[in-house]
UniProtKB/TrEMBL annotation:
It is found in: Cytoplasm, Cytoskeleton. It holds the Pfam family RMD1-3. GO terms for molecular function: microtubule binding. Interacts with microtubules. The keyword Cytoplasm applies. This is Regulator of microtubule dynamics protein 1. It comes from the Eukaryota. SUPFAM superfamilies: TPR-like (SSF48452). InterPro entries: RMD1-3_a_helical_rpt, TPR-like_helical_dom_sf. Keywords: Cytoplasm, Cytoskeleton, Repeat, TPR repeat. GO terms for cellular component: mitochondrion; mitotic spindle pole; spindle microtubule. Transmembrane segments: none annotated.
Length: 309
């Protein structure tokens, strides 16, 4: 079912995923003055490099290489912080490049702003502002480089999250575009397990869409998007094959999809894995709770059947 508000079509914070490895950093736009926004931070970033002053002198190769190495170093540090779920620290580290044309920085900024927007303490107005800003950044990053798979991956997430604020009809009207960005991301990086999970979830939710949303979809599309539990299962399985046990929610969805297909033994296997998955993030907690509840229902049904014998 499509959530009405909040996290977007994909019920993900991407908080515990080992998502992306650094890609070669593009050459920085020399003439772009990099901004310094003071969000989530009470300090002031002091730019000491003379290239960021109004009286900029031509940059020689050694200075340019130094800048590129600095950005690479910050991206590496940011990725380590991201794996530790230190989202505000990631933002503070990269925000000085928010107005640059550094694609490898921009999509990471978009990602971390989205993650911050999903934190429980965020007020609705703060959440909305962060999602809108995140969408604007990923839109700019994608315009700069349409061959970067992370741009398409995060555009699919942010497009859905952004259009959720325009109502269910607007959201449904973008379902095809959301999937197309995921497909493009997989075309560019076939080994990204989280995008495969996202595709599986898209297929599952389209198949599981309630009647009133299907009715809306039929007014938006000449041929509304369709899928099947079998197609969803293929993506979930492929994600697990590429990176086993990478995400508690993928294990949960494998169990739920097998339930839909009435393959209870396989469903119990994956639900048990999700139920006992080490909890490190909110997503893990949610997967653990739902999987354990489904397993309890299995046991109750089994006892009832045994009592009838």
């Amino acid at each position: 079912m499509l959530p009405s508000t909040g996290r977007g079509l994909f019920y993900l914070a991407y908080s515990g995923l080992k998502i992306l490895k650094p890609i070669a950093v593009q050459t920085i736009n020399r003439q772009k003055l990099l901004s310094n926004r003071n969000k989530y931070n009470t300090g002031v970033f002091l730019v000491s490099l003379s290239i960021f002053t109004s009286n900029t002198k031509p940059i020689d190769d050694s200075e340019e290489n130094e800048i590129e190495e600095e950005i690479k170093s910050k991206i590496k540090e940011a990725d380590l912080l991201y794996k530790q779920n230190k989202y505000k620290e990631v933002y503070n580290l990269l925000k000085e490049y928010e107005d640059s044309s550094e694609v490898e920085v921009l999509w990471r900024l978009s990602r971390v702003l989205y993650n911050i927007s999903q934190e429980h303490e965020m007020r609705p107005d703060e959440k909305k502002a962060l999602i809108f800003e995140s969408f604007d950044i990923i839109s700019r990053s994608l315009a700069l480089d349409e061959t970067n798979f992370a741009n398409h991956k995060w555009m699919s997430i942010l497009l859905d999250a952004r259009t959720a604020y325009d109502g269910i009809k607007a959201r449904i009207s973008h379902l095809g575009s959301v999937k197309n960005h995921m497909l493009k991301a997989i075309e560019l990086n076939p080994k990204d397990a989280t995008t495969l999970y996202m595709l599986g979830l898209w297929c599952y939710q389209i198949t599981d869409m309630p009647w009133y949303q299907r009715k809306i979809a039929s007014t938006v599309f000449a041929a509304p998007p369709v899928s099947s539990y079998e197609e969803a299962l293929e993506y979930f399985i492929k994600a697990e094959e590429i990176e086993p046990r990478f995400y508690s929610q993928n294990l949960l969805m494998l169990g739920k999809t097998y339930l839909k297909l009435k393959k209870e033994d396989k469903a119990r296997y994956y639900l048990d894995l999700a139920c006992h998955y080490p909890i490190a993030t909110d997503d893990d907690h949610l997967a653990n709770k739902e999987a354990c509840e489904l397993l309890k229902k299995f046991k109750t049904i089994r006892r009832q059947k045994e009592g009838d014998v």
